[in-house]
Specification:
The chain is mainly beta. It is 10% helix and 36% strand.
């Protein structure tokens, strides 16, 4: 995906653009109540690590949704851009914000215990409950 192993994307209006150094090949779905409220369904994202370069960073609004994470979106058009872990600075970039979304594999689902019964994915993925996610990342805070 992208030139020379890089991937790029941005918001709807073009006020924010981003580049990551490695091509992305997989993504996951978060079913937590906060993500579903934020994007009106599961949040599809990929871990791009801490090295995401932004153009138009002044146009990014950041909302601290918990003690351990913040969510970023364009101030102008409202496009959801990322969920960022405060502890390690990793950006979980929104799949929908990438320029090229082809060839990606959904490999995981988190907060599966919060998924409403109105949808299911046919993909076979690794699944984790909210408690398992918090145990993995060492957080006592159960609000994402």
């Amino acid at each position: 995906m992208g030139d020379q192993g890089k991937a790029s994307g941005g918001c709807i209006c073009g006020a924010v653009c981003f580049t990551v150094d490695e091509a992305i090949t997989r993504f996951g779905a978060c079913h937590c109540g906060m993500c579903r409220r934020w994007v009106s369904g599961p949040f599809f994202a990929t871990d791009c690590g801490p090295n995401v370069r932004f153009e138009g960073e002044d146009n990014i609004a950041r909302f601290r949704s918990s003690d351990w994470a913040e969510r970023g979106f364009c101030k102008t058009c409202g496009s959801n851009l990322f969920y960022r872990l405060i502890t390690n600075g990793h950006y979980m970039m929104s799949i929908g914000a990438f320029d090229d979304q082809n060839g990606l594999e959904m490999t995981s689902q988190v907060f599966i215990d919060e998924k409403p019964d109105g949808y299911d994915f046919a993909n076979e993925t690794k699944v984790m409950t909210g408690a398992e996610v918090f145990a993995l990342y060492g957080s006592e805070d159960e609000s994402a």
